[in-house]
Amino acid sequence: MLRPERMSKVSVTGSRRVMPTVIEAVHELSLVHLSDYDGSWDGFDNGDPMTGADDASEKLVTVRALESTLELSADEADPGTLEEGWEARLEEIRTRINDLDDRRVEINDELRQVDEKIDRVAPFAELGIDLDLLSGYETVDVLVGEGPLEEVEAAVDASDDVRAFETFTGGDVVAIVAAPAEGADEEPIDDALVGVEFTRYEVPDTEQSPEDYVADLESRKRDLESQLEEIDAELAEIKQEEAAFLLRVEEELTIEVQQAEAPLQFATTDHAFVAEGWLPSEEYDRLVATLNDAVGDSVETEELVRADYNDEGYPTRTEDVDHGGSGGAEETTEEEKREAATQEAIADGGTTAASGDVVTMVDEPPVIQDNTGPAKPFEFLLRLIDRPKYSELDPTIVLLLTFPAFYGFMLGDLGYGMIYTTAGFLMYSRFDEDIIRSLGAIGMWAGGFTMLFGVLYGEFFGMHFLGDIVFGGSPPLHKGLQPVYANYGTTWLMVSVLIGLAHLTLGYAFGFFNDLDHGVGDAFLENGSWALLMIGVWVWIFSRHGESVKPEFLFTSFGNGSEAAFELGFTGFATEIGMYVGLPLIAIGFVTMVYGEVKHYGVLGIIIGGLESFNVLGDVLSYLRIAAVILAKAGMAFVVNMLFFGVYVVETDHGAEWHFGTSHAPQHMLEQGTYHGHEVSEVMFGGLLHGGLVMAILGVVILVVGHIVVLLLGITSAGLQGIRLEYVEFFNRFYEGGGRKFEPFGGIRSDDD
């Protein structure tokens, strides 16, 4: 568990004459997250872009548009080199690509028109009537479309505007030829069909038969598609030849635009500028050395503050930073410093705005998550919610330590774990995208723990032969699905609760640490009171005080004898501990928690606190989903294997054992009567493997598909349930998120979210 990297606010003040050199030096370092000047200082305005900014921006837009047309991404080639006259080369490429793209647009437009014509003529092909016979008449009206024939004929027959008519059909298409009555309107058929559900088709303007017309259109379509292929091939050739050049131009123009527009974030006068920003505290000396090498004494660089870890991120009182000057030990409020520095700047003609360690641009520190090695990929899971605030603890390392363990504990199968690990490795090694690589690394961790617990459970794709090989038939853990190991099922309920207590207590501890800047008292009311209440409730539950109303497995799962899955001798806390430890902790925790709610909400806090107090029970019980997934996944794998191999039941002194028919058919074992000296009492299922060739083939399909389904559901159940426990139960104790991303001036391409 780490804090975000410690950040310092720095100020660079100097003459406008050296500003371009300073900008170039800071940009090359790529260390400073620039702050935006808000225009609030008298005598200072936001700077103007440097000469050439507009031209560089236009060229950058052009290059990115060309890359979009070529579907060129940054990971497809390494930037090349730029030689003299690159602008002319860029213009030549732009002309070629734009001409090809314009031609492609024209061809696609014509292709759409051809497709529309083909679609329109299809109904006429069903009629089998030449198209020239369906139009051009002066004494009759012709209409073609789709509609119910009987309703169409009835409507036309009932029309006073139609003297006579004839219909022709082909498929669902109807052609109506009607002779108008004396004095009828120009379109008597349309008038007659008002109220009838009829879709009218326009007759194509051609003398060809529908078949010939479509054939010509299909020929034109093939010609257009061939032209498109030629254009795409030429664009692909340009992409291959010019990718490195375009990426290099984009990089150079991006740098030029960033540098040219940087003054927009500065506070400037006619003669001076002030630039402020955040950088990792350990990099301050490097910044000073770089600026001294670039412009010497022409600028003044000051470390204004090293940001405290408080709720606002940026401290209301600054920490004085002494770099050999006469910096005083007295703390000054931010507003006082701003006011004093304003007066100094005005008196000095606006040239020393940042002297004296004055922050002129107030903003929160950006966040750099300081995780390396195995924990780094788990930042992806954290940022699915939000990156931590600067004032918060970064729980990435906790995700590394808990999420894969939750996942592996719930699934616990060597075979599934090997597949998860292999898939994760392929994602991590075969892709360059950070998100996919992070998912791959997380998959390897989750798969590793799934394999570890799979060995401890003695399971390989739901089969138990691994336990026979490694542990002589007695692996240290069982999932509790079989009657002989039913006590493990209830024990996992206990273990899930204990995991929840430990996880939530850690969350309250993190919350307490986060809130210490408010004072120990407030930190206790916000976090410690809840922890006391939760621990008190569960100490009482695990005690024998009132044991008659509590489930028996609370006192037997870790006790002694055959009912104990693990013989640890724990049969519950003594009645006195429940009365004199548990109940007092409940009382103290409840009273202090309610008092904290009253401080927030007034008298209403009594009701709110009373209702929310039940969360200490419900939140811990949420972790029972761990035990539920263990049993559910074990049951699904068991059913898949049972359908294929079959299962016979063996009665032992401790309960019934279920065995798969791997070496012999279950019916054979029943007829034999015993297995290792114990009675074979029944066949649960005969198994498709033992039902003949056809059934065996069907069984193989069920076996493969079934395990794939279990494998995928393992991700959605164990994965999502594990994430839920982290996000909803654990993070809610201390984590808000909402931190600003650290974006240093000089970063060309961002690979983060």
Distance between the termini: 22 Å
**Mean pLDDT score:** 85
- What Rg do the Cα atoms give? 39 Å
Derived from helix and strand composition plus strand pairing, the structural class reads: alpha+beta
Unreliable spans: 312-320, 322-357, 749-753
The general outline is extended
Main sheet specs: 6 strands, antiparallel
Helical coverage, percent range: 40-55%
Number of helices: 22
Strand content: 5-15%
Q: Find the count of extended strands (DSSP E, 2+ residues).
A: 14
Structural account:
There is one protein chain. The model is unreliable at 312-320, 322-357 and 749-753 (pLDDT under 50). The chain is extended and about 110 Å long. The protein has 753 residues and is an alpha+beta fold. The protein has helices at 19-29, 53-70, 86-127, 149-157, 188-192, 210-261, 284-295, 334-347, 379-383, 396-411, 414-430, 434-457, 465-471, 486-514, 520-541, 553-556, 575-601, 604-612, 615-621, 624-645, 666-672, 693-730; strands at 7-15, 33-34, 45-46, 141-146, 162-170, 173-180, 199-201, 267-268, 272-280, 299-306, 647-652, 655-660, 674-675, 678-685. Strands 1, 2, 3, 8, 9 and 10 form a 6-stranded antiparallel β-sheet that branches. The chain has a 4-stranded antiparallel β-sheet with strand order 5-6-4-7, sandwiched between helices. A 4-stranded antiparallel β-sheet has the order 12-11-14-13. The longest helix has 52 residues, at 210-261.
